[in-house]
Amino acid sequence: MPNIKSAKKRMRSNAKKADVNTLVYSSMRTAIKKVEKEVKAGNKETASNNLNIAIQKIDKAVSSGLVHKNKAARLKSRLTKMKNAME
Q1: Rounded CA gap, 10 and 2, in Å?
Q2: What residue segments make up the domains of the chain, in order of their start?
Q3: CATH number of 5-85, picked from 1.10.10.10, 3.40.50.300, 3.40.50.720, 1.20.58.110
């Protein structure tokens, strides 16, 4: 446990940031899984809606620095290809 006041504050702020980062990253992964699930099921409309949501979540993760922009591009590309292949 830190003794210095600024180190204590840094621990608190790091814990808060870790919680937010976990929330953003897990919601992104959940959105991706929902798209994959709907594509497997063959539901075009819900897959399109979920794809839009997943892209938004991926972009949010990039803007917060959790995911590299190239990984985000790869994820979006793969999801879009999956959705387009079912048509």
Answers
A1: 10
A2: 5-85
A3: 1.20.58.110
Nearest to 50 by CA among 62, 40, 35, 63: 35
pLDDT tens digits, the chain, 87 residues: what are they?
A: 899 999 999 999 999 999 999 999 999 999 999 999 999 999 999 999 999 999 999 999 999 999 999 999 999 999 999 999 986
Query: What does the alpha-carbon distance between residue 47 and residue 14 come to, in Å, rounded to a whole number?
Result: 36
For the entire predicted model, the pTM comes to: 0.88
Contact present, 37 and 20 (Cβ < 8 Å): no
